[in-house]
Amino acid sequence: MEVDDMKAKNSQRNDIIRKVFIYVLLVAFGIFMIYPLLWVFASSFKSNDEIFKSLSLIPKHIVTNSYFEGWKGTGQYSFGTFILNSITLVVPVVVFTAISSTIVAYGFARFEFPLKTILFTLMISTMMLPGTAVLIPRYMLFNCLGWINTYKPFIVPALFGTTPFFIFMMVQFLRGLPKELEESATIDGCNSFQILMKILIPLCKPAIISMCIFQFIWTWNDFFNPLIYINSVEKYTVSLGLNMTIDGTSVVNWNQIMAMTIISMIPSIIIFFSAQKYFVEGIATTGLKN
User: Fold this and answer.
1) Whose CB among 144, 190, 244, 271 lies 3.0–4.6 Å from 194's, allowing a Cys bridge?
2) d(Cα 267, Cα 269) in Å, to the nearest integer?
3) What pLDDT was estimated at residue 56?
């Protein structure tokens, strides 16, 4: 009996030690991952001389006007103009991507048509194609259409389901839904569009929200494509505005840049945490079959 008690105590002690080790490791890894963000936030209250001389998160001399001065921007455009431009660009792209990707995925997941497998394979294969490989043809096409220095190179392609990753994700989610629901709706007299709108889209809400979060963050943070297609400062997005702040002044006020970086991250952080429940559910259930 005493031997069994000793084994139980040793096993319990080992479990506690293992859990403590795992928690300490996770906390250390979490601090390691979040430290750059904390450093950026702390640097927004430091002077230029102090930012790159110390890794400490506590500023020796607190600078209080970095957010106010940074919001003024450079030249005649404030940072608020860049945020509004980003919203004007991102919202249509997210909405149209969600609509078009869902419709295309519905077609691949539920309908049979000639060359379906070949077309689906070609669509998936485009995920392996680097964006730089089609950059010049796309630029030439958009230039011929007169879309350069507008948001059309971003918005119009989103109308036609040009993001294979989201289509693939939605196809996998739709395949995991029972077909009996659609068969019952068909018996009740619903057509394909009504089945999509009334049956499938409510069930696909976690996947659709996950798609919107991904697309919002990717488009909001995109720097390269706006740099190629947008020329005038009045249409610059947040990423281009931050870059202009660095290039447009002889003396770079890094605390102001850090302050505007923090502000530019706020929309993505708010959207992610406000929809975190659906995001986790959508990612966890994509590809599962009943």
Assistant:
1) 190
2) 5
3) 79
